[in-house]
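Researcher: Here's a chain I'd like modeled. Treat it as a single chain, no partners, no ligands.
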Amino acid sequence: MNFKNKTVFISGVNRGLGKYIFESFLKEGASIICTVRKRDIKFSNYLKIIKKKYNNKIKVLYFDFENYNQIISNLNKLKKHLTIDILINNVGFASGSILEMTRIDDLEKIFKINYFSHLLIIQKLLPFLKKSKNASIINITSMSAFLDHRGTIAYASSKLSLSFATKVMANEFLGYKIRVNAIAPSAIETGMLAKMDKRSKNKLLKDTNLKKPLKINSVIKKILFLSSDKAIKLNGNIIKKF
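Model: Modeled as a single isolated chain. Structure tokens:
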């Protein structure tokens, strides 16, 4: 697939799935606007290597998904003539505990990062997406949203909210020719999976009929496909099979 002359906005590219999404679109020729929570030497050095490897335009915005003012301030700096063709809402924060042991403040934090901040970003970027002839929004949710596992009250509920919002926005944005879809992978071979305890990991694999974690490449292929003109008829879908 070729995304030359396309501008892609990706949140959370400094590690995990977001980093792979970032590099995959660069390989396909896209210009990138991306977000990272804060500046650090490791990412700065990585970015220098990436910019030498690719000639694509890369713009990095630094803001915390818990801070609405930072999000608004940074997005307001985008040039008015800009067109965004693809938006990948990737940022996510996972934390597990049963409801009885979960502070409401922690629930709010997870919803702020995994749900409300994504809606805010979509609101702010909508004028840029409307300029595209075939814009695509892809929300990264999770299979956890469709399971009733203990200890996932915060994470799974936030991802389920984003999944439902995907379908609503797909309907609302039809008139703008903006497609909205989501992918809901199960366990992926990333750092987030490594942080899960063995029992929870095995249960997630069992209940999603997987013998082993998903390969990153299988998830990336779905994202690239949904972003392309080949998926022009797909709207309001939650992709669960890879």
